[in-house]
Amino acid sequence: MKSIAGLIIMLLLASVTFAQVDEDWEAYKEQQEKREQQYFKQQDELLAKYAEQMDKYIEKLDKEWQDYLEKKFKEFELYKESQPDIGPKPEEMPKAEDNAEAKEESVEYKEVKQLQKKPAEVEKPILQKTAPKDFATSSQYFDFYGTDISMDYDRSFLNDFPDNISEQVISQKYGEMSKTNYNHLLEQLTTTSNEMNLNDWGYYLLLKNASEQIAGDDAGAVFLQWFLLIKSNYRARIAYKGDNLYLLIPAANNIYDVPFFTFNGIKYYLINGDRANVLTYDKDFPEATKIFDLNIDRPLNTELDEAARKVSFTYIGDPFEFEVAYNKNVIDYYNDFPLSDATVYFDATVAGNTKQSLKEGLQPIIADKSEKEAASILLRFVQTAFDYKTDQEQFGKEKFFFADELFNYPYSDCEDRSVLFAYLVKELMQLDVVGVGYSGHMATAVKFNEDIEGNFINYKDEKYTICDPTYINAPIGMTMPQYAGTPAEIFQLRNKLNEAYAEREIWGIVMDMGGYRGNNTGDIITDEQGNIYLTGYFSGTLKFGRYELNSEDGSRDMFVLKVDKDLNIHWAQSFGGEGTETGYGIAQAPNGDVVVTGSFDESFNFGYKYLKAKEMPDVLVARIKPNGDLVWAQQVGLEEIGLQRGFMFTSEFEYDGDPVGNQIFKEAEQFQDFGLAINEEGNIYVTGAPYEMAGLGVQTASYDAGASFSAPEVLIEENSKLLEKDYNPAIAGLFAVIKLLNNSSIALPGEEAQRTLDKYNPEFKKRSPHIYKSIGRIQFIKNSEGIVTIKTDNQGEVSFKTLKVNNNARFKVSAYNSGNSQIDVLGGVSIGKSIIWYDLNAVKLYKTGDMIMDYDVDHTRIRMGIEKDILR
């Protein structure tokens, strides 16, 4: 993964020489520094005012919640749901005759296992109360699936819990905990969760481990888990019976063999015991909106404890053999995962090293093959590369495997193989799959683009052809004999990977036409009919078929586009004026309307609505009908807030467009859920931050106007300042470049970077000739209203060995108060090798010298050290 080194070096070196202008640089620099100090002072005073308001709100909220807890507990009866009976499985895998042929025949189905739909929820930042600069802390260390976790927390945290549990005791302890500096620990836990790609269950396990380290007894640990969950905006509840405390978590998925009760259509699972009834309360903490989602959409990024399994198979006489790597720490995580719906396992992604080795092993084999032949190869691989035993034989109970687990355990059965085959077809072929269940058996069916003969299911007016990964040597379209003629159950899958691949393809087409992204998440959605909506920006003329959009005087304007699943364009709209407008996010309302958000820096007409930006940029929110007609448009009003840095905001609008109000939060770099959300009542929320939304960032200094200066000297000076602030020397220079680039709109030519290298680092050309040559092919790097564009010499791609940078590649940079930064790639940069390439999504840079790369549609993440992994 050293490919990112090329990009970093390019950014470092292409930024060191600027054109000269006429004024005295030293005087200009001194003037800028004074202005910057005054600006920061004003902003800090305003931030303190908002922080004081937040403190009062939290204090009131906690007091009311404490009073409620003291008198509102009542008894709830719990129920338990067992995993659906699978029935007796085949003791041995049947084998099809050589050269067997599938016959075209429709398979009846009796039931569709619908996806568990997660209720609409709004992901807002965690409420943060002001903590004193210095408070007494304690420290704990623990292992979390191979990753070393260190944390420190307020020494006044609850240690143990009284034996005489009651509503009054719980209320009292809540009041005591709410007065501690708990946000300090929450920031560490949410940061770790984000870095490790934990889903909701993983975050609970992290809190559970941390709480058990802090608390002196079991009840104290349960209380801490509940307190930290509700303060993390989860709708968790605490319960008691006798002398025991219990934790209830709400889940959108079924959790089998665990007691639960249902409240307002949501199941709350008693996660740490087995009771028939408990005492608890009947409403959620006011700020809590989140429900547990057990789906694993992003691979766990834990420390690598790698093992490998050699697999082999034969297809039409040709033998194949390769190794599949897996992470034993991820397997340990799966062992602590609750038993849930089959679809959770079918839709899960796999660990990064497993994905890579499967692609390296199978992608070359199926390359350039027809859909039928490629799927046949994958089917034969899963049918014959693994030994068969039922779960009862291997474990003495039923155990669903995630796809990674087949490579860890010696045996697997029908549902495990179906899960792996479904993953391979989605990941390598981007085809939709459904699970096909019988009594005692599980298979799959694939929606091919080709017309393939064989047994099939007509589902939602689409043909899904049977593929049985347990029926040895059976071709596509052949049902296992003992289930032929038996009505099946269909397990509807989310096929989220395929949706992400399709959306990426659409953006690739749009970018080739001249439309660009203002964000790399949340700017494209797919509705239930397969229609795709997206928003971004363009300059000049943008043509979508018969639709031609023209920006105002060649400036940057916002666009919204709708295409159907066959890529037919339904409509295209542009919105803008003389300034800069950037589409940023899009969401769908329950009635099918779409809601869009973006930034703008001058007044203009959004359809019939006049939006007015005065002294600073603002954020727009608009609702549009499925046919493209504008319903309403509003603006957030950032100028009225007054802040320009160090904060986040959530703005709420009623469904008819009436503004409800703004909520201001202190910057929290671990928060990632920016963009649009719509709650169950239809209210619309937009969450953003100046450092995160392109077009909102306010320059506090400018190095490209009104002064003559030497960029190398500026970088050396800034680098020295950063070293004094304990930045790692290996990465301080990059942060100096980021600051210079963020505060500048000058084009940075690659040839100038080469000349600077020749002068200041002549050995570099000999040591890294390929990178040196590639740098020269960069025409320029330029920052325009927060979006940085890279131009190449021949409008083609520039290769840095395992990194590709295309002409017009774009990214934006977020600089945090902590000193860390993040580069979000908006298109045109990929990493990989040979025939396997992934889109690079983001690079998180820490001033310690660490970095986290985020790549591919499943947001695989890997942590690296610039000294250990790149510069060595």
Short description:
The protein is of the alpha+beta class and 872 residues long. Helix 2 runs antiparallel to helix 3 and helix 15 (711-724) packs across helix 16.
Task: Describe this protein's structure.
The chain contains 20 helices and 44 strands. Strands 37, 38, 39, 40, 41, 42, 43 and 44 form an 8-stranded antiparallel β-sheet that branches. A 7-stranded mixed β-sheet has the order 3-18-19-17-16-20-4. Helix 1 packs across helix 16, helix 5 crosses helix 6 and helix 10 packs antiparallel against helix 12. The protein is globular. The N terminus is likely disordered.
Poorly predicted runs of 5 or more residues: 1-7, 9-23, 700-707
Q: What percent strand?
A: 25-35%
Q: Tell the overall outline.
A: globular
Return Rg in Å.
28 Å
SS-based structural class? Answer: alpha+beta
Number of helices: 20
Throw out a few tags for this protein.
872 residues; alpha+beta; eight-stranded antiparallel sheet; seven-stranded mixed sheet; 20 helices
Write the layout of secondary structure elements.
Elements: H1 4-13, H2 25-71, E1 74-77, E2 79-80, E3 105-106, E4 109-113, E5 137-144, E6 147-154, H3 167-178, H4 183-196, H5 200-214, H6 218-231, E7 237-241, E8 244-251, E9 259-263, E10 266-270, E11 277-280, E12 306-315, E13 318-327, H7 328-335, H8 342-346, H9 352-366, H10 371-384, E14 387-388, H11 391-395, E15 411-412, H12 414-429, E16 432-438, E17 441-447, E18 455-459, E19 462-467, E20 488-491, H13 496-513, E21 524-526, E22 532-539, E23 541-544, E24 547-550, E25 556-563, E26 569-575, E27 581-588, E28 594-600, E29 604-606, E30 609-611, E31 618-624, E32 630-635, H14 638-641, E33 647-653, E34 659-666, E35 675-678, E36 684-688, H15 711-724, H16 729-742, H17 750-760, H18 763-767, H19 769-776, E37 778-784, E38 787-792, E39 798-799, E40 803-815, E41 821-833, E42 836-845, E43 850-855, E44 860-865, H20 866-871
Parallel strand pairs: 3-18, 4-20, 14-15
Antiparallel strand pairs: 1-11, 2-9, 5-6, 7-8, 8-10, 9-10, 12-13, 16-17, 16-20, 17-19, 18-19, 21-22, 22-25, 23-24, 25-26, 27-28, 28-31, 29-30, 31-32, 33-34, 33-36, 35-36, 37-38, 38-40, 39-40, 40-41, 41-42, 42-43, 43-44
